[in-house]
Amino acid sequence: MANAATRLDRWLGPLNGPQTMGRGVPFWLCFIAAVVVLAIAPNFLSRYDIINFSNFLISGLLALSLGLIWGYCGILSLGQASFFGLGGYAYGVVAMNLLRAHGNTDVAFVAGILIPVAFAAVIGAILFYARLRGVYVAILMLVISLVIGTFLRQTADPSYTIGAAYLGGMNGLRPTSPDDPLLPSLIFGFGDWVAEFDGRSVSFYHLVLAIVVAVYLGLRCVVNSTYGFLLVGVREEPERTETFGYDVRLIQLSVFCLAAAIAGLSGVLYTAWGTYIHPDGFGVAQNILVVIWVAVGGRKDLLAALLGALVLNWISLRLASEGEFALLVMGAILVGVMLLAPEGLAIAIGNRLGRLFGHGAKVGQPAVRTEEG
Amino acid sequence: MGAPATKLAVAGTMILETRGLMKTYGGVAALQGVDFALKTGELHCIIGPNGAGKSTFFKLLMGIERPSAGQIVFKGRDITRLQAHERARLGITVKFQSMRVYQDLPVYHNLFIPLRRHHRAREIPAVVERLLADVHLSGTGEEYVRNLSHGQQQWLAIAMAVAAEPEVLLLDEPTAGMSAEETTATARIVKRLNGQGTSIIVIEHDMAFIRDLDSMTSVLHYGALFAQGAFKDIEASVEVQRIYLGTL
Q1: Closest listed residue to residue A74, CA positions, set A150, A22, A137
Q2: Which of A81, A323, B40, B109 is at a distance of 20 to 30 A from A277, taking alpha carbons?
Q3: Which of B66, B74, B82, B85 to mutate to test the interface with A (most CBs of A within 10 A)?
Q4: Nearest CA-CA partner of A268 in A69, A95, A147
């Protein structure tokens, strides 16, 4: 077993490491099986379910982005949804303006990622170079998100247009005039080759699934690299890490930007999925929901955060017909998990399984000491 | 690399110097004009009653805090305005009074982080082996730090500072909470490091440990240098005994 694990480690190279849960053969077999089941799900699930699953996976990306900065680097942002929203608006505005000329949304897709990154670079530089930490970063990020949301809510006046895109206040992004194109789904084009992914289609679902798997595997490589250990070093002992010659501010800023890119990507996909983006995404509820997904799943592991988002989204959809009852159940789940498995449900289960298969528990063990962040 | 370096006349073989170093916290002076010099390759102990400003002195040397006035010079270069990580890159590092080890990482990766600045990833396992053997921690690489005893965590904290491969090593209470045997072993480790050419300043309360090191010793009292000399002279000084034990 140990030999097989070593060989697997070598073969998987940067994908495997102590910073992520699940390194053995059983884990990877389950992982591949789960991806295959998700990939063939459209064959046995209804169209309605698949459309919802696309959205769950998009939320999963947002959870991954928060898990990366909060779980690994100790930066709790209560405004992670602002990057999601900015990505969505950036995608929409650019897509509506360039669709006629380009016939695709390539530039919009890239803009929806880069604009949140640029915003994160400016905000992060201020926060981290001022050496703000912990609750200050968390609250400032929430305030920033609320400010953007409040501004966008007040853009109902017809003068708030960016070319062919009208910001539209509470109603969300719309065409400036009836002649301008509607907010499009994803259309990728390279030369003569054009691929359209309608948000309601199976192909869109497959695209989102592929992106989520790629981002998850990519982030596994990141957190198991030297950089990943530095992230944990900054989370655990920022001053100590600094006295080893690492610029902690730069590490925080860089991971903050990377997380903003993933959140932005999530926002792009969400906007393309529903061909719709509105200011509610910047609100308190949306921002807190992301934190709940990650906290319930487990912040110190990428897959745990992703699973938290998928499962909780699924539960809240099941409960949606029950009205107010759904919110109560979500609250009860959060409180229950925080009491019974403060490190997160998926991590607790993963550690249990890990012991079953003879590996030591590796990630987010119940902490003996008090934890911050 | 950060602030412009003022080239100062290289003062003999001094590796680290402070000139009129002051630190006040809201009107209370923690350090009031300390002139201190560490020779290249020297082992120097700093003692003094609680609240004498010893840990503040280290924080200023490392760049964790800014001095209110005064100057810090490393190898003839004014580093007063440099950030902690910039000073670390020049070759200064510290073991803090509290251990500040990475509780949530295995022992191996506690050393990996400081080592990675100087070594390729594939060289590190061998270096870790050697470092762990030096501090009596062989075979603990896979352990999570929280499973180590207090004394072992102190040794790991020292090994981490050594792993940063500094020219000047600042050790703040390296033997706090250690047993007598552990303290003796720690003195051997410190002397060996110094023998290998590292310049070291040690802050300590444990007189047996300092006697063991038998080096130049400075006494800080109310934020000022009170006395300086060989340890046996300091130990014999009536004045020093007075500040430690109250009025005689």
Answers
A1: A137
A2: A323
A3: B85
A4: A95
Least Cα distance to A84 among A116, A60, A108, A53 occurs for A116
* Residue count of chain B: 248
CA distance B30 to B24: 5
d(CA A76, CA A290): 11
Q: Which residues of B touch A246 (CB under 8 A)?
A: 85, 88, 113, 117
Find which of B101, B113, B123, B162 to mutate to test the A interface (most A CBs within 10 Å of its CB): B113
The answer to whether the CB of B198 falls within 8 A of the CB of B228 is: no
Contacts of B84 in chain A (CB under 8 A): 239, 242-243
Q: What is the DSSP string of B62-115?
A: HTSS--SEEEEEETTEE-TT--HHHHHHHTEEEE-SS----TTSBHHHHHHHHH
Nearest to A368 among B85, B146, B160 (CB): B146
Residues of chain B found within 8 Å of residue A248, distances taken between Cβ atoms:
85
Strand, coil or helix: A68: helix
Given a cut of 80, whether residue B17 has pLDDT beyond it is yes
Distance of alpha carbon A57 from alpha carbon A34, whole angstroms: 13
SS3 state at B46: strand
pLDDT of A372 strictly over 60 = no
User: Token match 């409040």: residue?
Assistant: A150
Element spanning A24, H or E: none
* CA atoms of B93 and B170, how far apart (whole Å): 6
Closest by Cα among A257, A324, A330, A334 to A86: A257
Given a contact cutoff of 8 angstroms between Cβ atoms, the answer to whether A277 and A90 are in contact is no
pLDDT at B8 over 50: no
Cα gap B137→B129, rounded to integer Å: 9
Report which DSSP code applies to B145: G
CA distances from A75 to A237, A300, B237, B243 (A): 13, 12, 51, 45
Query: Is pLDDT above 70 for A167?
Result: yes
A229 and B112 within 8 Å at the Cβ level: the answer is yes
Contact A18 B109 (CB under 8 A): yes
Q: Quick check: B31 and B21 in contact, CB under 8 A?
A: yes
pLDDT for residue B2 is more than 60: no
Partner residue opposite B164 with nearest CB, options A229, A239, A244: A244
CB contact under 8 A, A239 and B64: yes
Asked whether B61 and B90 are in contact (CB, 8 A), the reply is: no
Q: How many CB pairs under 8 A join A and B?
A: 75
The single residue listed with the structure tokens 């499962």 is: A311
Q: pLDDT tens across A101-146, in order?
A: 988 999 999 999 999 999 999 999 999 999 988 899 999 999 999 9
Mean pLDDT, residues A287-306 = 94
Among A275, A256, A252, A274, smallest CA distance to A264 is for A256
For residue B130, what are its two tokens? 């050697």
When CB atoms are compared, the residue of A235, A243, A365 closest to B84 is A243
Taking alpha carbons only, the member of A346, A200, A210, A171 closest to residue A273 is: A200
Chain A contact set for B61 (CB, 8 A): none
Q: What is the pLDDT of residues A204-248, one digit of tens each?
A: 999 999 999 999 999 999 999 999 999 999 999 999 999 999 999
Whether A269 contacts A58, CB under 8 Å: yes
pLDDT at residue number A94: 96
Cα A228 from Cα B139, distance rounded (Å): 24
